[in-house]
Amino acid sequence: MELQLALLLIGCIIIGVVALTTYERVRFSRRRLAANSGTAAAPAVITRVRHAPATTGLDINPGPPHEQANRFLKTDVAVPPVAEISADAVLYEQLNDYEQAALMPLDLSLGLQDPEVLAAQGGNRQNMPDEKIDYVVTLPGKGPVTRDAALGIYRQNEYLLEKPRHLYGLGYKTGLWSNLETDPENAQYRSIALSVQLVDSKGPIGESELNTFTQLSLKLADALQRPTKFSMPFEEALEKARELDEFCETNDVLASIDILANGPTGFSGRAIDQVARQFGLQFGAMNIYHKKNDQALGCRHLFSLANLYQPGEFDPANVDRFRTQGLTLFMNVPCAYQPVRVFEQMVQIAKGLCEKLDGRLEDHEHHLLTDQGLMVIRTQIERLTAEMTNRGIIPGSATAMRLFS
User: Fold this and answer.
1) Which of residues 209 and 300 earns the better pLDDT score?
2) b/e sequence 7-39, b meaning 16+ C-beta within 10 Å
3) 3-class SS at 240?
4) What pLDDT is attached to residue 117?
């Protein structure tokens, strides 16, 4: 009984801390909205080609996949046994679930939705350094530092960096980390932290850029008269960047299911539109259909439906004249929260589309996709999920979204 009460107390404390952190994130997001009101955001597109220039945005599935540009999970491979998730990883995943529950938005807006707050509740939120994927330099101290004193020096020099970088502060009164670039002008901090992401879609950070970041940190520390604390030695950061890049190369995959027409006339645009909407798919970004994600974590879309043939999109202006011989459903595995569950949902909709449109399932190599083949893909997703979780990078988490977007 005492153990149960202790576990209950720990759970309540965790939920309270997560709720408080969430409140701070939303509060600062509203301030950012007020500061940036009137600025239209462009649609986000993600490239799935690692080491190629990345486009903007973190919370939407990639565009129509193409054979040369993506890595697909295959149906004819021998899948090694799924790794057992460690006890520490299980605990971390449970904490992530607590965060997921706390981040689920309550409808207290009386119908007035705040797009910036909703975005902050998704994969874009980041209010503190993440040493799993960042090289961090902390400038600790006792006395308060004003936002503009730190931000001014940072902005004069950060343009020299290519990798994603951020400047954070530990609130002097709140005791919570926040992003200086979205904080109010009168904010004050106990400590300052600079971070640069070790890996992005272009690859690992290089020695020259990491040295530039270190010099920026030392310049800021000198101006604020603060000591510096590095998250790891310089050479270790370079090695971690290379190792993390290999991890991304291995796990940066798509799961796809193709739907081919049985009849010679293919699928009509009107039939595709009606059946897609029947299964809860919405026409949207990149002129394809998406299954909306109602959870706080992961991509804005669980998976997407595109034309199998170039250019991969649908033309809403010519829906009655449009025809195609094939469709493709696809999902971004590492950016999906609980990717096995998402894949199972995608399989159900794929089978439903086949039944309604008179089609058959195939994999991306044009082989008939059986239940056994679907199980092979599912097992690979389970293995990827276990490997990422054991590393402390939960699929669909903010960390995963930054790495694989």
Assistant:
1) 209
2) eeeeeeeeeeebeebbeebbebbebbbeeeeee
3) helix
4) 36
CATH topology of domain 134-230: Cell Division Protein Zipa; Chain: A, (3.30.1400)
Using DSSP's 3-state secondary structure scheme, residue 136 falls into strand
Query: Domain limits of the chain?
Result: 1-36, 45-104+119-125+242-405, 134-230
Task: With both helix axes pointing from N to C terminus, report the angle between 87-103 and 2-36 in degrees, rounded to the nearest 10.
Answer: 50
- Give, as one character, the DSSP assignment of residue 286: G
Between the CA of residue 362 and those of 58, 114, 369, what are the distances in Å? 29, 41, 4
Say yes or no: domain 45-104+119-125+242-405 is CATH 3.40.47.10. Answer: no
The owner of tokens 């997921």 is 100
Region 381-403: mean pLDDT is 93
57 in Cβ contact with 75 (< 8 Å): no
Sign of CA dihedral 359, 362, 366, 367: negative
As a dihedral over the C-alpha atoms of residue 191, residue 130, residue 123, residue 40, rounded to 10 degrees, the angle is: 50
Report the distance separating Cα 308 and Cα 311, nearest Å: 8
- Token couple for 307: 């034309």
Per residue in 309-352, pLDDT (tens digit) is 888 899 888 889 999 999 999 999 999 999 999 999 999 999 99
C-alpha span between 359 and 352 (Å, rounded): 10
Task: Tell me the CB-side half-sphere exposure of residue 383, using CA atoms within 13 A.
Answer: 15
* Domains 45-104+119-125+242-405 and 134-230 are alike in CATH topology: yes
| Residue 88 buriedness (CB in 10 A; 0-12 / 13-18 / 19+) | exposed
- pLDDT at 95 (0 to 100): 54
**pLDDT computed for residue 118 by the predictor:** 36
Kindly report the CA angle at 50 between 45 and 51, in degrees rounded to 5?
Answer: 110
The reported pTM is: 0.74
User: In terms of Cα–Cα distance, which of 95, 132, 96, 103 is closest to 119?
Assistant: 103
So what's the pLDDT on residue 405? 79
Extract the tokens encoding 320. Answer: 């009655």
Size (the chain), residues = 405
Q: CA Rg, the chain, in Å?
A: 23
Output DSSP code: residue 105.
P
